[in-house]
Specification:
193 residues; alpha+beta; Lipocalin; eight-stranded antiparallel barrel; 3 helices; 10 strands
Length: 193
């Protein structure tokens, strides 16, 4: 019985095959190994159900980072980037309600509860953190879903914000147009950073 020859040059094809198999396996699990994601596309909308008129706006220029290892999420919204159907509403929103020259940004920083990237698929989650709007920071909690789709992560949430909690006052003249509470819808498509 002869011993197999274990010299490197003779086993190069075998090592090459093993390397390719290992590389293929690692490539398929890259999403699990990825730690940080950034929002490649974002969509934040708000809706106010007024007695006389509904008001809605959309912002597609939101910056967000998601750290999977720590389950931390942060997003930053430039208030002036909200677009309204009626330009006059946009002017009033920036000048009278959100005072975007004085308070140009809104932010959320928090932790995601109930998400495990190893599981994949769509998962129901909760985010607990701090929401900063109009110069006021408050504890905030919101529910939503996170979906692992290929190398990307899709996060969606819908929650309510009480304007009075953030010192946003509604002038008496337009109180019928603006609800005391607005519904915010958030959707982020994250890619590996």
């Amino acid at each position: 019985m002869t011993k197999p020859d274990l010299r490197m040059k003779d086993n190069f094809p075998l090592l090459k095959i093993l390397f390719l198999i290992l590389f293929g396996f690692l490539a398929d699990t890259r999403i699990v190994a990825q730690v940080r994601f950034y929002a490649e596309t974002s969509d934040v909308k708000f809706f106010s159900d007024g007695i006389i008129e509904d008001i809605s706006a959309e912002n597609k220029n939101v910056t967000s980072i998601f750290d999977v290892r720590k389950n931390e999420i942060a997003f930053l919204i430039k208030v002036r980037d909200f677009e309204f159907e009626k330009k006059l509403m946009q002017v009033h929103f920036n000048e009278k309600f959100l005072e975007s020259d004085k308070y140009p940004k809104a932010t959320f920083v928090g932790n995601l509860i109930g998400f495990d990237i190893q599981k994949g698929g769509i998962q129901k989650v909760k985010a607990d953190g701090r929401l900063f709007i109009h110069g006021v920071t408050r504890d905030a909690s919101m529910t939503g879903t996170v979906e692992v789709k290929g190398r990307n992560v899709i996060m969606k949430s819908k929650f309510k914000v009480k304007l009075a909690d953030y010192n946003i006052t509604i002038p008496q003249v337009v109180w019928q147009n603006i609800s005391e509470e607005v519904e915010v819808t958030v959707e982020f498509l994250y890619s590996p950073l």
